[in-house]
Automatic annotation (TrEMBL):
NCBIfam families: PRK00080.1, ruvB. Mg(2+) binds at residue 88. It comes from Streptomyces sulfonofaciens. Its EC number is 3.6.4.-. It is found in: Cytoplasm. Keywords: ATP-binding, Cytoplasm, DNA damage, DNA recombination, DNA repair, DNA-binding, Helicase, Hydrolase, Nucleotide-binding. This is Holliday junction branch migration complex subunit RuvB. Belongs to the RuvB family. Residues 73-204 form the AAA+ ATPase domain. It comes from the Bacteria. Has 3 domains, the large (RuvB-L) and small ATPase (RuvB-S) domains and the C-terminal head (RuvB-H) domain. The head domain binds DNA, while the ATPase domains jointly bind ATP, ADP or are empty depending on the state of the subunit in the translocation cycle. During a single DNA translocation step the structure of each domain remains the same, but their relative positions change.
Length: 370
């Protein structure tokens, strides 16, 4: 008997776009159009206003203070962390704290070294260059960046072929702030050229509660402390999601209640949107329910599980599973997916007698789908 695993199994239809954390998901962590429109208004403007990330804030505060005291440009800073945790926000705060202008661009926008040369050569002294998605820059641009970061110099290539010449150009000192959701994809020479790397962590519910209360204040929404706590618990550790859920709850409060967000209003509103008490949405719950009810908690192969919930395997693997794994509800093992005791508890189900041995489910065999 063979359990299919993640490395084997039916390839998805060619041309199917890779499943992603799609915009239409209320608990998706990527910014959608509405997020982008309101995020600017909700962004903390300085380090004091920035909630949570105590370590990063303390370290960055030292880096910036010291640079200011020396009257120098701050060292290059790399911000790494999942979408929606505040990387763009922090880059703007760095510029604000240094009272420096900021230039914003992104890896995908820089396909040719020339694009980068044009930006670098027009920087003012002390300017902050924010390079979002820095892991997606092209190779030649990356190499130009090495020299610019280290020596504040670029070689501008003039002409083509054998007659091309490199004209060295001195740059004013600047601070590069790179942001990436995939620090592991950065080549070591690039990573090493940053003077300071900040790893952004997921936020604690109490921190998200503060984010929500602050945003509610800015949006002129009346929220009770318990209402904020209710939303915070469902926000997957991510300020962007917290702010988005707050806006949906506000709508509900306006239409169905007197505009005030209490615990009951928040819970009822998020019930309508199918975001449960741990922040799982319809898809997450469908995956867990199939795993528990159809396969007795596993182990079951990804392909089988995907067919059972009627989704592409990429969708299950890339959209639903990461959060379920992070929450300790599901584990990926060589024999297939298994549910943890917490998953049974979360769905209010009783594990079969043989189960309950804990994550890893050592020794137990559920012979489903053979
Ligand atoms: N520490 C924080 N305190 C208050 N609000 C925050 C904090 N971090 C993020 N936010 C809010 O969350 C939203 C998303 O943050 P931001 O755009 O900085 O995330 P990001 O890490 O750049 O995401 P992406 O990887 O998608 O670019 C912003 O509107 C911001 O107001
Ligand atoms: Mg960003």
């Amino acid at each position: 008997m063979n359990w299919d695993d993640t490395t084997r199994g039916a390839p998805s239809a060619p041309g199917t776009p890779a499943a992603s954390d799609t915009e239409d998901r209320l608990v998706g962590s990527l910014a959608d159009g509405e997020d982008q429109a309101v995020e600017a208004a909700l962004r903390p403007k300085d380090l004091d206003e920035f909630i949570g990330q105590e370590k990063v804030r303390e370290q960055l505060d030292l880096v910036l203070r010291a640079a200011r005291a020396r009257g120098a440009t701050a060292d290059h800073v790399l911000l790494s962390g999942a979408p929606g945790l505040g990387k763009t926000t922090l880059s703007m705060i760095i510029a604000a704290e240094m009272a420096a202008p900021i230039r914003i661009t992104s890896g995908p926008a820089i396909q040719h070294a020339g694009d980068l040369a044009a930006i670098l050569s027009s920087l003012q002294e002390g300017e902050v260059l924010f390079l979002d998605e820095i892991h997606r820059m092209s190779r030649p641009a990356e190499e130009m960046l090495y020299m610019a970061m280290e020596d504040f110099r670029v070689d501008v290539i003039v002409g083509k072929g054998p007659g091309a010449t490199a004209i060295p150009l001195d740059l004013p000192p600047f601070t590069l702030v790179g942001a990436t959701t995939r620090a592991g994809l950065l080549p070591p020479p690039l990573r090493d050229r940053f003077g300071f790397t900040a790893h952004m962590e997921f936020y604690e519910p109490t921190e998200l509660e503060r984010v929500i209360r602050r945003s509610a204040h800015l949006l002129d929404v009346h929220i009770e402390a318990e209402g904020a706590a209710e939303i915070a618990g469902r926000s997957r550790g991510t300020p962007r999601i917290a702010n988005r859920l707050l806006r949906r709850v506000r709508d509900y409060a306006q239409v169905k209640a007197d505009g005030v967000i209490t615990r009951e209003v928040a819970a009822a509103a998020l019930g309508v949107y199918e975001v449960d008490t741990r922040g799982l949405d319809r898809l997450d719950r469908a995956v867990l329910e199939a795993l528990l009810k159809l396969f007795g908690g596993g182990p079951v192969g990804l392909s089988t599980l995907s067919v059972a919930v009627g989704e592409e395997r990429e969708t299950v693997e890339e959209v639903a599973e990461p959060f379920l794994v992070r929450e300790g509800l599901l584990a990926r093992t060589p024999r297939g997916r298994i549910a943890t005791p917490a998953a049974w508890a979360h769905l209010g189900l009783t594990p079969p007698p043989a189960a309950g041995a804990g994550p890893g489910g050592s020794g137990q065999q559920h012979l489903f789908g053979t």
